[in-house]
Amino acid sequence: MLIRSGARVALLAMLIPLAASCGKDKAATRADAGGSAPVPVTTLVVQPSSWNDSLQAIGTAKARESVTLTSKVSEVVQDVHFQSGDEVRAGAALVTLRGNAQQAALVEAQAAYAEADRLYRRQAELAGQQLIARAALDSQKATRDAALARVQQMRSDIGDRSVRAPFAGVLGIRQVSPGALITPATVIATLDDVTRIYVDFPVPEAQLAHLANGQRLQARSSSYPDREFEGLVSTIDARIDPATRASMVLTRPSNSRSGYE
User: Fold this and answer.
1) For domain 193-260, is the CATH number 2.40.30.170?
2) Domain covering 99-160, topology
3) Domain ranges in the chain?
4) Rounded to an integer, what distance in angstroms lies between the CA atom of residue 224 and that of residue 226?
C-alpha cells in the first residue's frame, strides 16, 4: 500500500511540470501570432556605376612670363615712354636715361677708329711695296682693332641707358618719373605675359601616385566664382619639400587673357 501510494505521488509530480510546460508554449505561440507587426523591407537591384576620385588643392595663378624691370646702370631718367597698364610689344623702349657723356665718348671713339683705320690702309699699301716692315703694319692693325672695340663698348654703354621690354606683355604700375635718379635696385615696373596662365599647387606625397602629365583638371577662382576653368597637368616637380612633404604641380589652364577681363 505504501508502495502504491508512493508511485501515485511520483506520477502526479511528473505530470504537473509537463502541463505547465505545455501551457507556456501555447501562450508564447499566441503572443507571436498577434503581438508583433510586419517589418517593411526595401530592395534594390545592384548595378555598376562610374565613380571618380578627386583631389582638391589651393593653387597660385602665374603669368607665362613675368619680370621686374630695372636698369643696368645708375643714371637720371630722361624720358618715360609708357603708362601704367599699357600693353607693349617685345623690344619697345620703356625708359631712356641720360647719356650725354657716353654720346660724347662715342663720337671720340669713332674719330679715333677712323684715324687708325686710315693709317692702317696707308701702311698696308706701303707694306705691299715693301717700303715698311711687316711688324709696323701688324702694330697699326692692333691699334685699329682696339679703336673699333672702344666704339663697340661705347655703343653698348649707350644701349644700357635705354630700358626695353624683353617680351610682349602688360605693364604694371609705373614706379619712376623723369628726372629721378635710379639704380639697378630701383623697380621701374612689372611686365607680365598673360596670353597664357599657369597654375601651380602643392600635392601631398601620398597622392603623387595618382597624378600624371596630361590629366584634366577644373579650377575656380574667388575673383570669378561663377566660372570654371579647365586645364591639363603639365609638370610634376621631381623634388619633394622636406618640410611639407609635398611636391609642386604645374598646370596649363586652356584660357586666354580674354577669359580674365
Assistant:
1) yes
2) Helix Hairpins (1.10.287)
3) 99-160, 193-260
4) 6
DSSP at 81: -
pTM: 0.66
In degrees, rounded to 5, the angle at the alpha carbon of residue 98 between the alpha carbons of residues 92 and 103 is 95
Q: Which amino acid is at 216?
A: R
Q: Which long-range contacts (CB under 8 A, 24 or more apart) does 204-209 make?
A: 204/245, 204/246, 205/240, 205/245, 205/246, 205/247, 207/55, 208/236, 208/247
Residue 35's pLDDT band, with cuts at 50, 70 and 90, is low
What's the pLDDT tens digit per position in 198-232?
A: 888 899 998 888 888 888 888 888 888 888 888 88
Q: Could you give the CA distance from residue 170 to residue 66 in angstroms, rounded to a whole number? A: 10
How far apart, in whole angstroms, are the C-alpha atoms of residue 130 and residue 261?
A: 76
Q: Yes or no: say if 157 and 213 are a contact pair by the CB < 8 Å rule.
A: no
